[in-house]
Amino acid sequence: MNTAGSPTLSINVFPVEKIRKDFPILALKLKGHSLIYFDNASTTQKPKVVIDAVKKYYEEENANIHRGVHHLSAAVTLAYEKARGTIGKFINAGKEEEVIITKGTTESINLVASSFGKKFISAGDEIIVSEMEHHSNILPWQLLCEEKGAVLKVIPINEKGELILDSYKKLIGPRTKLIAVTHVSNTLGTINPVKEMIAIARGAGEIAVLIDGAQAAPHLQVDVQDLDCDFYCFSSHKLYGPSGVGVLYGKEKWLNAMPPYQAGGGTIKKVTFAKTIYADLPLKFEAGTPPIEGGIGLGVAIRYLEGIGISRIATCEQELLNYATAKLQKIEGLRIIGTSSTKASVLSFVIEGLHPLDIGTILDQVGIAVRTGHHCTQPLMEHFGIPGTVRASFSFYNTFEEIDKLEEGLKKAVRMLS
Ligand code: PLP
Question: What is the per-residue pLDDT across 198-207, written as a single tens digit (0 to 9) for each?
Answer without folding.
Answer: 999 999 999 9
